[in-house]
Specification:
- The chain is α+β, with helices and mostly antiparallel strands.
- The protein has two domains: 94 residues, 2-Layer Sandwich (Phosphorylase Kinase, domain 1); 219 residues, Transferase(Phosphotransferase) domain 1 (Transferase(Phosphotransferase), domain 1), CATH 1.10.510.10.
- Helices cover 44% and strands 14% of the residues.
- The protein is built from eleven helices and ten strands.
- The longest helix has 24 residues.
- The protein is globular.
- It starts with 8 loop residues before the first helix and ends with a helix.
Amino acid sequence: MLDRPPVTDEQLSTCARQSYGIDLRETTFLPIGYDANAGVFRGVATTGAYFLKVKRTPIDLVSVLLPRDLHARGLTEVVAPLLTVNGENWGVIGEFALLIYPFIETRPATRLNPEQWIAFGAALKRLHQTPLADALHPLITQETFIPSPRCVQIIHWIESTIRTHSWTHSVKQAFAAFWIEQAVLIQQVVERAIQLGQQLQAAVQPKLICHADIHTGNLLVDTDGGLYIVDWDQPMLAPIERDLLFVSDGVFWTTPEDEAQFFQGYGPVTIDPHRMAYYRYARAVEEIAEFAVQILESDSSDEALADAFHWFKAQFGPRSIIAKADQLWEVSLR
């Protein structure tokens, strides 16, 4: 969960009215998601309910233009942000952008049922089969098979300082002890991500539109059972393994039944073990670094720190993304 960003209800209402022509009667902060640079709200106006996303600038323009283009081209599962009254892509509140979306009334949190897993697979297949609009080619990130340099740098910095720094907060103390315990494995994850990436750079790889963060936390199911895909913050052109990472082999808490139903909708596919191993290690590098920063560098609430530490520890263990990557590492050596 996240703490509320430093934006008041009055600022939200003023920006919504001036930028979108929406007169909000009330706003409610929703402590969901794991982007430390963003926060989301439910807004209610006379014209209905809206989903408000406040995100620290700069904003990746393609994260707004791509979902809008996909929705207009018939991928109705894609949730796209509204334009402002002046045709702009977002409103501005100081150092934050305000993006407003239609609000989707969802069911209480439950697992996807078999029909929804099938629908999810079919929707992702349509995405992967959709050609990128020519105008978006200069804007979208293309896979380089280089693990996030920023996250690699963060990991190296923490490793070089964690044994000499002391913290007073109990969660930060526990985090430091856990990091030291896992230090050899963390370094191995970084090294393997880099090595696999270098191997993949040496050959031409297929690249299609990928959501790039398509776990079930970024799916919504409405009260009629309809499925929607949200949070298009980091789309890219990449091999399909970039998205299939999230539904394969139980890495993101999917069951074998979930996976079978997903691929019933997606259709037959051959997953390349080298690319999948790379994506698992590269994702682990990002999660390790991002949750570490949330824990060590923030003044978050005790609850938010504990939650970040929980998800940091989830990267390790016998069913974790690292363990699953290690299994494919053995395959890649053959």
